[in-house]
Amino acid sequence: MESKKEKPVYLECEKLWVFNALIFVGGYYGAYTYNLRGGVFCNAQTANMVLFAMHLGERDYLKAAYYLLPFTAYFGGIVISEILAYEIKRLKIVRWDTLLIEIEIITVILLGLMPKEWPDQLCQIALNFICAMQFNTFRQAEGIGMATTFCTNHLRQFGSFLIRALRTGDKSKWRKCILHGIMILLFVSGAFVGTLGCSIAGYHSIWGAGIVLLFIFARLLYADRTYEKDMLKLTPRGH
């Protein structure tokens, strides 16, 4: 008789709860920058690329150059996260994933302290940078490819798995459909809570995202220093 297939073991940084919490933060960031820091979204770069090309087409090169700032910051975040992830792994003290959340917390604290008179671009570039690192670092939730800073892909996956689940009745398709749907709802919830926070606490409201990040950091750090201490050399799936 064939033995049952062993259930895969996932690192704490690959757990669904981590991705659920992070996409909530992603929605919160979007609400914060749109409501208080220049009316833009810093979670992704598609819109910035379109605007860059549009201004080039209009021969407004100064405005076109402006959009190179967030694009460069986002690109820099991806590159730096790749470099640091490799170097931190060699030290075998904590995971890069854990350290990144700590960096996000520090960034959020500093942004909440930033005077409203300061240029909005400083906040935008900082969030572009950390969103890029987060997007590049957290790639798969328990074997399922997921993004934590925007939900366009989740919308596609939700629709795709919904049709396949209705057609076949496959439970695994239903599960993936539901998981992507939850990610969309949490992103929207993060934006909703972030908007309420902006109206109540103003520029300090970004600290609300820091509360969620602090919880994630505590859990990941505990895992790194206890039950996953001997697994620091392992690379999360998707990398």
Q: What would your notes on this structure say?
A:
The chain is mainly α and 239 residues long. The protein has one domain. Helices cover 69% and strands 2% of the residues. It contains 9 helices and 2 strands. The chain has helices spanning 16-36, 46-57, 61-66, 68-91, 96-113, 120-137, 152-168, 171-201, 207-225; strands at residues 140-141, 144-145. It has a two-stranded antiparallel sheet with strand order 1-2. α7 runs antiparallel to α8. The longest helix is centred in the C-terminal third of the chain and has 31 residues, at 171-201. 38% of the residues are buried. The mean pLDDT is 93.
Ordered list of secondary-structure elements with their pairings:
Layout: H1 16-36, H2 46-57, H3 61-66, H4 68-91, H5 96-113, H6 120-137, E1 140-141, E2 144-145, H7 152-168, H8 171-201, H9 207-225
Antiparallel strand pairs: 1-2
Q: Average pLDDT value?
A: 93
Write out the strand line-up for the largest beta sheet, numbering strands in chain order. 1-2
Major sheet characteristics:
2 strands, antiparallel
Low-confidence stretches: none
**Series of secondary-structure elements, N-terminal to C-terminal:** HHHHHHEEHHH
Tell me the number of strands: 2
Rg value:
19 Å
Helix content: 55-70%
- Principal-axis shape equals globular
Give the domain tally. 1
Number of helices: 9
How much of the sequence is in beta strands?
Answer: under 5%
Distance between the termini: 35 Å
| Structural class by helix and strand composition | mainly alpha
Structure at a glance:
The chain is mainly alpha-helical.
